[in-house]
Amino acid sequence: DAGVTQSPTHLIKTRGQQVTLRCSPKSGHDTVSWYQQALGQGPQFIFQYYEEEERQRGNFPDRFSGHQFPNYSSELNVNALLLGDSALYLCASSISGRSRNEQFFGPGTRLTVL
Amino acid sequence: RKEVEQDPGPFNVPEGATVAFNCTYSNSASQSFFWYRQDCRKEPKLLMSVYSSGNEDGRFTAQLNRASQYISLLIRDSKLSDSATYLCVVSPTDSWGKLQFGAGTQVVVTP
Predict the structure, then answer these.
(1) How many pairs of residues across A and B have Cβ atoms under 8 Å apart?
(2) What are residue B50's DSSP bridge partners?
(3) CB half-sphere exposure, B102, CA atoms < 13 A
(4) Under 8 Å between Cβ of B93 and B101
(5) Are A31 and A47 in contact (CB under 8 A)?
(6) What CA–CA distances, in Å, run from B81 to A41, A57, B77?
(7) What is the pLDDT of residues A27-50, one digit of tens each?
(8) Which residues of B touch A45 (CB under 8 A)?
(9) Is B21 an 8 Å CB contact of chain A?
(10) Which of A33, A45, A105 lies closest to B43 in CB terms?
(11) Best residue in A89, A103, A109, A110 for a mutation probing chain B (most B CBs within 10 Å)
(12) A31, A49 in Cβ contact below 8 A?
């Protein structure tokens, strides 16, 4: 049973560029959430996708956008990259409607903006 | 004020000893509570959910105090492999939505 997978594992970009990160949820999971984790901090919620729509959004600017595909996989797009966007980007999957909001994380994509 | 606050540590624990730490949360409407474990430069992994009556999973015991809005984790008979950062996590809903993370408590188990 494959867990949550993310690609790429590492990425280096320069300021102003755009980036796309990808996530495949655990088998049987239909909901994908994205988090940003800066060094020394806990993960911060970016947004959550369910049924191909953004269901909830955290305090991130519109430069952060996403998409969910019919097979439940998801993409995170960040435009006009800033130095402060350097972080570990984590994808988490879950099953909507379960009794508890248990989310399972992928290995993350480490983004460095120069 | 942060939504979830934790003592960053580190808690230096001799192998075989017991260590306990807690976190506080600000949103009284929080519904679900968890402890995640995160190893250096790895993803968070769900350690255990925290239930209102308290619960135990092997050497790990979690407690929830809704009145005082804090959650605790106790690790008995610490192993070297327990060295990690422990993240306190709350969710305002039971079944979906964002998780709110603390910044983590670092535990270092020494031989």
Answers:
(1) 70
(2) B33
(3) 30
(4) no
(5) no
(6) 22, 35, 11
(7) 999 999 999 999 999 999 999 999
(8) 98-100
(9) no
(10) A105
(11) A103
(12) yes
Produce one character per residue of B13-45: b if its CB has 16 or more CB atoms within 10 Å, e if not.
beeeeebebbbbbeeeebebbbbbbbeeeebbe
Token pair, residue A92, equals 């988490």
Cβ of B96 within 8 Å of Cβ of A101? The answer is yes
Output the tens digit of pLDDT for each of chain B's 111 residues.
789 999 999 999 999 999 999 999 998 888 899 999 999 989 999 999 999 889 999 999 999 999 999 999 999 999 999 999 999 999 987 768 899 999 999 999 999
Q: Which residues of A touch B4 (CB under 8 A)?
A: 42
| Least Cα separation, residue A81 to chain B (angstroms) | 22
> Cα(A66)–Cα(A58) distance, rounded to whole angstroms?
13
Residues of chain A contacting residue B99, judged by C-beta atoms under 8 Å apart: 33, 35, 43, 45, 92, 101, 103
CB nearest B97 (choices: A41, A44, A101): A101
